[in-house]
Amino acid sequence: MHKLLNQINTPGDVRLLNQTDLPLLANELREFIINIVATKEGHLGASLGVVELTIALHYVFNTPDDQLIWDVGHQAYGHKILTGRKNLFHTNRQWGGISGFPRRDESVYDSFGVGHASTSISAALGMAIASNLQGDTDKQHIAVIGDASIAGGMAFEGLNHAGVTDANLLVILNDNAIGIDPSVGALKMYLTNVKKGTQKRNNIIKALNFDYSGPIDGHDINAIIKELKRLKKIKGPKFLHIITTKGKGLRQAEEDQVKYHAPGKFDSHTGELIAKTVSKFPKYQDVFGHTILELARRNKKIVGITPAMPTGSSLKYMMAEMPDRAFDVGIAEQHAVTLAAGMATQGLIPFCNIYSTFLQRGYDQIIHDVALQNLPVIFCLDRAGLVGADGATHHGVYDLSYLRCIPNLIIFAPRNEIELRNIMYTAQLGLDYPIAIRYPRGRGITEDWKQPFENIEIGTGVELKKGNKLAVLSIGTIAKNVNDAIENRNISHYDLRFVKPLDEGLLHDIFNQHDTIVTVEDNTVKGGFGSAILEFAATHNYKTTIKTLGVPDIFIEHGSVDELQESIGLDVESLKLYFNKFL
User: What is the pLDDT confidence band of residue 469, given thresholds at 50, 70 and 90?
Assistant: First the structure.
């Protein structure tokens, strides 16, 4: 069935093929990716779009000696298959299987670990400078940047530096005009004009001192190979602009590029999505999306901001109805945070929705531009906690720790959908401080979640169950696992809700009434919620036994959330066994 692909175990095998055979290899590689992802799930459209480029790169360059870096990394499935992982590809993103992104410890062909956007140019430039310093001036360093990553600020920082070096660097722009959602901004308009041939003057890349070529058809493998061979002989920074179609080779993936970015299971022959059982529970992202729209209809000062995630955050609902008040700023988390800060100075009420793992990229802006000036920005941190198959690059397990040390910042984690709605309602009424609201990927636990809004008093926790000597303190949606684990047991359970400020009155009552306290969180145990409780106990000289449960001090790999929780002892059965020790 795959007569050529079956012969390929390394890029060296690709280089043994006749160039006339490569279009057939491209068809087989595309079919292989479609067949596996159809049943195992994963990212689809991005890798289908770069099949010809992937083959051409390994055909022309001497990988792994020549170093190849795939920005974001979800475009690298073809690369993985051609570099010795074909027989493991069915384990992609599965518990114990290979990662969905390139990783240095997985293969010598993965020159740099990538999962977040816009990092490839800086990394490749660093490698190229190192090669120059070590006298290896013939070594090639290739950064493939696409899926809207070129608009990220860090990509421009890399281009700006590279243009004044003699580094042997090739930047390939995989221009498909879409990330997860369609690209936005002036750069997208500029690239569109370049493709149309209407942008005749002022080439941005040439102005940055790059040898610019293109745009060329990214699905014409012979044209790509010809140009790569030419560029291979040119020293210094080079830039190749190729035009691709995301989802190429699967009609539905070409026509609905947003849905087929990561489509779930589908029929590999027809491309039709396999219908999932409709859940009676909402996704947390949709609770956010519908709630901000509901609030924005009432309050004209509310604006929404997301960095390139209108679908993933569900800000798309507000963008559709109120396009002048909801902003997709592209892959630009730093800009998103400071844009929100600027809006807040003028009396607007900005809801800045950024995935927990991506807010890490705007950390200085949270401190310097928001908290230091005490601007009431409302941060909504989607995908907090363990996210599942995307793995270590995407788990949102550090936010409580990296936010808790910042003065002036309120931190809240709702245990269910109603609490999320109510804290959003409370925040837009007017707070004296910025607030971070963190909630998980996936579905909630409440069918009838569209309840009338209620104000939440800042810094108050709630008692969920009264027991005897053991008290469990939880934060956020991990409360569900705790509730199930202590059912029919004489154990107290408190949802603190606020990691900052803590409900000190409630904590004094808890410490005075219980011999042992266990904290549970889906954040790292280093510096998180449990650490806050330990600090409270130390400050007030409590001698109570305190145990902290959470994400251990290691990077957690990929797998389903249930598998990951079980692996670190946060699932219901593990919690039961742990609590039994104190009964």
Answer: very high
Q: Cα(503)–Cα(513) distance, rounded to whole angstroms? A: 16
CA distance 328 to 432: 26
Q: Which of 153-162, 476-485, 529-538, 566-575 has the lowest mean pLDDT?
A: 153-162
pLDDT bin (cut points 50, 70, 90) of residue 380 is very high
Catalytic residue among 80, 86, 93, 246: 246
Closest CA to 133 of 164, 167, 162: 167
Whether 40 is catalytic: no
State the average pLDDT over residues 551-579: 97
Closest CA to 496 of 421, 422, 412, 427: 412
Instruction: Give the span between the Cα atoms of 475 and 518, in whole angstroms.
Output: 12
Cα 71 from Cα 149, distance rounded (Å) = 7
Q: Are strands 141-146 and 67-70 parallel, antiparallel or unpaired?
A: parallel
Cβ atoms 579, 491 nearer than 8 A: yes
- Helices 22-40 & 221-232 angle (0-180, nearest 10): 110
Q: Which of 41, 52, 227, 333 is catalytic?
A: 333
Average pLDDT over the chain reads 94
pTM above 0.90, yes or no: yes
Provide CB contacts within 8 A for 400, sequence distance 6+: 411, 413, 438, 475, 499, 521, 523, 524, 527, 528, 529
What is the sign of the dihedral through the CA atoms of 487, 489, 494 and 499? negative
DSSP codes, 437-464 = EEEESSB-S-SS--PPP----TT--EEE
Angle between helical axes of 22-40 and 51-60 (0-180°, round to 10): 130
Domains of the chain and any CATH numbers: 5-261 (3.40.50.970), 284-440 (3.40.50.970), 462-580 (3.40.50.920)
* Catalytic residue status for 419: no
Judge if the upstream peptide bond of residue 182 is cis by omega within 30 degrees of 0. Answer: no
Identify the three-state secondary structure at position 570.
coil
Mark whether 573 is an active-site residue. Answer: no
The active-site residue, picked from 80, 361, 438, 441, is 361
pLDDT in tens, 6-51: 999 999 999 999 999 999 999 999 999 999 998 988 898 899 999 9
> Model confidence over 273-305: pLDDT tens digits?
888 888 999 999 999 999 999 999 999 999 999
